[in-house]
Amino acid sequence: MRSRCLCQICTCGRHHCPHGNTRIYENSGVPYPTTEYLEKYPMYGNVLPPQSLKPKQEFRACCAKMEGITTFKSDYRPYEIVKQPCHVPEEYKPKLGEIDLGTTYKRDFNSYKMQPVAIARPLERQQVKKGKLDTVPTYKDDYRAWDIQKSELYKLEETYHPPTVKFGNSTTFQDDYVPQEIKPRQSFKPSFVVRRSAMPFNGDTSHRLDYVPHQLEFKFAKPKEVYKPSNQPFEDLTTHRNDFQGLVGETVKMCKPTCNRVTQNAQFEGSTEFRESFQPWEIPPPIVKKVPEYVPPTGTMQLSSTSHLDYVPYQANRVVPIRPVSHRRNGNFPFQGKSTTKEDFPAWESCRPGIIKRHQQIPNPSGKFDGLSTFRSHYVPHELIPTKSCKPLNVAVRSSIPFDDVTMYSIEYTPKKQEICPASYPSPPGYIFENTNSQGHKFFQEISTAVKAF
């Protein structure tokens, strides 16, 4: 015998066991466990909920007929569109006489002559000093040169004698590295000559060798059903046309005000508020300071400056250099520019390898160029055949055969019996109530059916 909970018996997923108290009150001995919230806020009795004042969603059919006139149709009626007259400009006629190019700026602000500004710099005072200037500096006066005698050399003079015998000692480079003749390297670059094989081309591939052709199975072709047009004419009357026929009513008066254009024949006045408020007034000319007339000085100009007067040229002795005399060895023997490297590695004649040019396989054309390309020579013009349009004609097809409303869903659909969830009953059929645990789950015991013996 197996016991199952109400949550396990339910097959629709909408039935659950009512959960009761938690486990902390299971063995406490308190028949009705209460909390602080339940003590402060007791539960009210059977109080009916307030009635909702929300209107019920019911369709209220209108008894009168519905008019097919909208506010847009009733308020705005079509009116005649009058083409607005275009402004035709008058022909330009030049005015006779000369054009007055004067402006308000030239009229109000007259130009006046400007004079150069007088220089306010004070005159330069020339101070002429009399007497001779001592030009000896303090360095020459305090630090005077004294006579120093040159010390004699105690080194013995040795004259260089070049050796007459050749230097016979060999170097490690000469002993270890023997000069060898340079040979040109062999080029491993492949040649550009096309090698043609005498054997025929083997076009067999793994796909061609391994592929086994199989015969295709016969494809079942479903016979095409013949279309049977309907004999009855098509009813194009919709529910909207049938229910809303429209009523004839009075035309609504137009509330739009009339547009009256205001035209004036008077001439436009060019005066503005600025011109009326601010009138031009006379501006007095600015006061110009009178500059005295320049009077050139009399007599000749002295071209002597303070440098010419104070610094008189004098004769000075040339400074003797303190650089020591260089003792060069003047040898008449020739310079020997030979070395071991030049003697052991003399320069040899080397020829640069020439450029390897490939022979031209295609000969150059000898005749005159015809100007005929391969496209022009091989191209054959054909007549352009227009593509046939496969678009169906926009014509309503009427058939006398009745409409076949048989579908695959209506043929293959099998209605199923709606099962009732066993947990929806107070006592589920086939189960006996056993007990309720501390968490509130109701357990039912399954009734075993006895098997009758033959």
Task: Summarize this entry quickly.
It is built from 13 helices and 3 strands. It has 454 residues and is low in regular secondary structure.
Explain what the structure shows.
There is one protein chain. This protein is low in regular secondary structure and 454 residues long. The protein contains 13 helices and three strands, in the order βαααααααααααααββ. The chain starts with a strand and ends in an 8-residue tail after the last strand.
Distinctive features:
454 residues; three-stranded antiparallel sheet; extended; 13 helices; little secondary structure; 14% helix
The strand order across the widest sheet is: 1-3-2
Tell me the span between the first and last alpha carbons: 24 Å
In sequence order, what are the helices and strands, one letter per element? EHHHHHHHHHHHHHEE
Radius of gyration, CA atoms, in whole angstroms: 65 Å
Number of continuous helical runs: 13
Anisotropy-based shape: extended
Overall residue-averaged pLDDT value: 77
Largest sheet: number of strands, sense, barrel closure: 3 strands, antiparallel
- Percent of residues in beta strands? under 5%
Helical residues, percent: 10-25%
Class based on secondary structure composition and strand pairing: little secondary structure
Q: Using DSSP, what is the number of strands?
A: 3
Point out poorly predicted stretches.
Answer: none
